[in-house]
Automatic annotation (TrEMBL):
The keyword Hydrolase applies. It catalyses: Thiol-dependent hydrolysis of ester, thioester, amide, peptide and isopeptide bonds formed by the C-terminal Gly of ubiquitin (a 76-residue protein attached to proteins as an intracellular targeting signal). InterPro entries: Papain-like_cys_pep_sf, Peptidase_C19_UCH, Ub_carboxyl-term_hydrolase, USP. GO terms for molecular function: cysteine-type deubiquitinase activity. This is ubiquitinyl hydrolase 1. Pfam families: UCH (PF00443). Keywords: Hydrolase.
Length: 229
């Protein structure tokens, strides 16, 4: 039944992390008052253990540069830059309507299949905006060992992942379309699916797309990469 299916999904996709949170004094307060508040218990860093089914990767704000022909320049960012959110050191500020917090994240368990959700869409008061930044990623051999806390690194024998699926969003946020890149495990070939259309695609073309959701498979034991390049 559903509970059995839920257990399978959990076994396959669920990892865990530590979330460290530190409350910040209100930015408008005088410096001395901020300094005093930082000694209060309320402003000390706290830590919780949490599970996750996917990791949200934040894109840097897209600059609106234009070249000589007035074409917008699409920025690019390496995958490892946006993965730094989970290295246990990088701090990110979160704002609620009345309070500000600094958070940092550190992974404590890597699942057999790891889902990345690249945060392309942000909601403003009136409309949804899409960030067009291209993420530069290798499609094989991504080692995530450094994002695990030291004491669990020893327990994780395998921390290397290969991409097996890539969901792309094309066009405007309100009316765009989706394409899916899928690795055929038996042949090591990549295919692109759009509606009912299936076509071959070269692996290097995948990395040029506006990736939105990705599924990565962990290499276990002495498994080597089967993908054709």
């Amino acid at each position: 039944g559903l509970s059995y299916l839920g257990a399978i999904v959990t076994d396959v996709f669920q990892g865990s992390m530590r979330i460290f949170t530190k409350k910040l004094p209100h930015p408008d307060l005088p410096a001395e008052e901020k300094e005093q508040l930082l000694h209060n218990d309320e402003y000390q860093e706290t830590m919780v253990e949490s599970t996750f089914m996917y990791l949200t990767l934040d894109l840097p704000t897209a600059p609106l540069y234009k070249d000589e022909k007035e074409q917008l320049i699409i920025p690019q960012v390496p995958l490892f830059n946006i993965l730094a959110k989970f290295n246990g050191i990088t701090e990110k500020e979160y704002k609620t309507y009345k309070e500000n917090f600094l958070k940092r994240f550190q992974l404590t368990k890597l699942p057999p299949y790891l889902i990345f959700c690249i945060k392309r869409f942000t909601k403003n008061n009136f409309f949804v905006e899409k960030n067009p930044t291209i993420v530069n990623f290798p499609i094989t051999n991504v080692d995530l060992r450094e994002y695990l806390s030291e004491e669990v690194q020893a327990v994780h024998k395998n921390t290397t992942y290969d991409l097996i699926a890539n969901i792309v969003h094309d066009g405007k946020p309100s009316e765009g379309s989706y394409r899916i890149h899928v690795l055929h495990h038996g042949t090591g070939k990549w295919y692109e699916l759009q509606d009912l259309q299936v076509t071959d695609i070269l692996p290097q073309m995948i990395t040029l797309s506006e990736a939105y959701i990705q599924i990565w498979k962990r290499r276990d034991n002495d498994e080597t990469n089967q993908q054709g390049a």
